[in-house]
Design goal:
The protein has helices spanning 4-9, 30-33, 101-106, 125-134, 145-148, 150-156, 173-184, and strands spanning 11-13, 20-28, 42-54, 58-72, 79-94, 112-115, 121-123. With 185 residues, it is of the alpha+beta class. It has 2 domains: 4-142, no CATH class; 148-184, no CATH class. The protein has a 5-stranded mixed sheet with strand order 2-3-4-5-6. Strands 1-7 form a two-stranded antiparallel ribbon. The longest helix has 12 residues, at 173-184.
Length: 185
């Protein structure tokens, strides 16, 4: 469960915003990940620059993420640094007297989040985490894995492009015997 002190580190105090452009900086690291029960990744360091444009009816927030994640190679399990350099945008619109729930759901897919005018603290923790998670590639293999991968270097660097029978898993031997017995019949 998040403590108020933890939330405040990744939040914006709305009454302190001036009209126009406001700038905030956040650092996402291992301390940030401790706020989540089962994070999907390890964060090296990701710096987030947030530009908040305060208007009368909404906040237009532009995030710029720069840094790296610590990912584990799908091939060999070695950790590597995966660079991040991306921008995202969210509009936090104030619920007004004339705004109905139907109008809110119509624009939901355009990254508009509705907040109450009574809000004093805009917690960005979940949005920051979600945007970082979106940057995790489906296939986590660094570009230089073929040259540095401990699992494959011994096979391919020495010119050995196929596995020897002795290198195969011994549990398959019983299946090989069954196959050879069936082919004799």
């Amino acid at each position: 469960m998040l403590r108020p002190k933890d939330i405040k580190a990744y939040s914006i105090e709305l009454p302190k915003l001036k009209s126009g452009k406001n700038e905030f900086d956040f650092l996402l690291d291992e301390r940030f990940l401790k706020l989540f029960e089962k994070p999907l990744m390890k964060i090296g360091k990701v710096a987030v620059a947030a530009e908040v444009f305060k208007n009368l009816n909404h906040l237009d927030v532009k995030f710029k993420f720069e840094g790296f994640l610590q990912l584990e190679c799908d091939r060999c399990g070695v950790e590597y640094e995966y660079p991040i350099n991306v921008e995202h945008r969210i509009i936090y619109a104030y619920r007004g007297v004339g705004t109905t729930e139907e109008e809110e759901t119509e624009v939901e897919g355009t990254e508009v989040i509705y907040i109450s005018r009574d809000e004093h603290l805009l917690d960005l923790t979940q949005e920051l985490y979600d945007y970082v998670c979106l940057e995790i590639p489906i296939r986590k293999v660094p570009e230089d894995c073929n040259d540095n991968c401990p699992r494959y270097v011994s096979l391919f660097k020495e010119g050995n492009t196929s596995l020897n029978e002795s290198d195969t898993d011994p549990r398959w031997e019983a299946l090989r015997r069954m196959k050879s017995d069936n082919s004799e019949n």
